[in-house]
Amino acid sequence: MLRVLHAMKEEESEVSCNVDYRIMPVKCNTKCGRNAVLKRPKTGDALCKECFFWAFEEEVHHTITAANLFSPGDYVAIAASGGKDSTVLAYIMKLLNDRYNYGLKLVLLSVDEGITGYRDDSLETVKRNEQQYGIPLKILSYNELYGWTMDRIVEQAGRKNNCTFCGVFRRQALDRGAALLKVDKIVTGHNADDIAETVLMNILRGDIARLQRCTAIVTDSEGSIPRSKPFKYTYEKEIVMYAYFKRLDYFSTECIYSPNAYRGHARAFLKDLEKIRATSIIDVIHSGECLAVREGVKLPSPSTCTRCGHISSQPVCKACVLLEGLNKGKPRLGIGKSSKVRERLGDTVSNSGEGNAPHISQANNSAHDF
């Protein structure tokens, strides 16, 4: 609970979430007759707890149904880290599945990156969520899949590019876990703030391929399991408020390796914009949705990695490139100039076969862990 209160204090330093009763009680804008206890960052409405819960849940339900994210009978993996977004997502998916009879089979899928003092603690929260929500849990580790932990990677590579390693490995780990469980779809807790930040980052990096698809509510490619974002239009602050007033059990400590991440600069810029214009987050998302690549621009087409068989737009996927560098004691091998590095690695594979391929376990342990 102290963690939740700490998280709320951080949010309240950026936006006034609570209604000030020192002047006079403010009634809920829905005219339900109850006193308001919060002001929605997204709309500015003063609401009581009950009306806020209803509005929050119905907006997520509308996002799900408008985009036809699921079909009855779908087996859906919820990417669970123990943080506020994934905890609220698990709670909401369970709630809406029961309320509206989606007909989904749910499972929690967690990735243990091997970060001592952070991920081991957050996974304890996920294990409690498993019991609280009655949703089975599967945990996969970097050590199991790649033969490395993030602690060892940071020890060798330093802190400057550690988020590159973690992001690439985590995305692939979720795909491998989902394939192991034979789920139909994956849902992640990416919220509106996350997506707006990604739009800004891709613009600043000139990454046309990612810019075109980063606002999509469903991302998939041939042969991969579709991922969807039910919180695409949900503000981070409102997720924190929902978790706080619902008294949900979540882990609020920031990753010890992330303070210098590039995303942090985009986040700070976006928060400054939001202070001037409350709709900045949604505006950036809508702008990203409207961007189109002109005809004639060649975009990478998905294929499979010649080493591990995972979906990739290059002959050798980014995970294998990074692992090659780690295993050779040259962690910067896969950082920057990736096309030239992958070209060289692709030639190595064709000349020497798979004998020198970096270790990526197929994680073929059975799903009877449930």
UniProtKB/TrEMBL annotation:
Any one GO BP annotation for this protein: tRNA wobble position uridine thiolation
Catalytic activity, EC: 2.7.7.-
Domain tRNA(Ile)-lysidine/2-thiocytidine synthase N-terminal: 76-254
Biased composition (Polar residues): 348-370
Domain (2-thiouridine synthetase TtuA-like N-terminal LIM): residue spans on this chain: 30-52
Family matches, as InterPro entries: CTU1-like_ATP-bd (IPR056369), CTU1_C (IPR032442), Ncs6/Tuc1/Ctu1 (IPR000541), Rossmann-like_a/b/a_fold (IPR014729), TilS/TtcA_N (IPR011063), tRNA_thiolation_TtcA_Ctu1 (IPR035107), TtuA-like_LIM_N (IPR054306), UPF0021_CS (IPR020554)
Family listed: Belongs to the TtcA family. CTU1/NCS6/ATPBD3 subfamily.
Function: Plays a central role in 2-thiolation of mcm(5)S(2)U at tRNA wobble positions of tRNA(Lys), tRNA(Glu) and tRNA(Gln). Directly binds tRNAs and probably acts by catalyzing adenylation of tRNAs, an intermediate required for 2-thiolation. It is unclear whether it acts as a sulfurtransferase that transfers sulfur from thiocarboxylated URM1 onto the uridine of tRNAs at wobble position.
Name of the protein: Cytoplasmic tRNA 2-thiolation protein 1
Gene source species: Halocaridina rubra (Hawaiian red shrimp)
Gene: CTU1
